[in-house]
Amino acid sequence: MPATSEQQRKDAATALAAKHGSMPVSQLQGPAKELYDTMTEDQLEEMAKKSETDETEKDDEES
């Protein structure tokens, strides 16, 4: 399930970084901490990636 907003994507990416050990879990706050506690690494990866729809919409806006 891809994120529905840019903020959700960022929170998922932050939680994923903590799962990978790239940052301490103690630095997580708010939604990122909740995502870390409740989602698997695979779920976070899916949520953190940009969807093709997001890319298409961005390309349309630049034209």
Q: What is the domain tally?
A: 1
Continuous helix count = 4
Q: How many β-strand stretches? A: 0
What global shape is seen? globular
Share of helical residues: 55-70%
Structural class: mainly alpha
Q: What ranges have pLDDT less than 50 throughout 5 or more consecutive residues?
A: none
Please state roughly what percent of the residues sit in beta strands, choosing from under 5%, 5-15%, 15-25%, 25-35%, 35-45% or over 45%.
under 5%
Determine the N-to-C terminus distance: 28 Å
Radius of gyration: 13 Å
The helix-strand sequence is HHHH
Mean pLDDT: 85
Largest sheet entry: none
SSE layout and pairings?
Blueprint: H1 6-20, H2 30-38, H3 41-48, H4 52-62
Structural commentary:
This protein is mainly α and 63 residues long. It contains four helices and no strands. The termini are far apart. The mean pLDDT is 85. It is 68% helix and 0% strand. It has one domain.
List keywords for this structure.
63 residues; mainly alpha; 4 helices; 0% strand
What's a concise summary of this model?
With 63 residues, the protein is mainly alpha-helical. 68% of the residues lie in helices and 0% in strands.
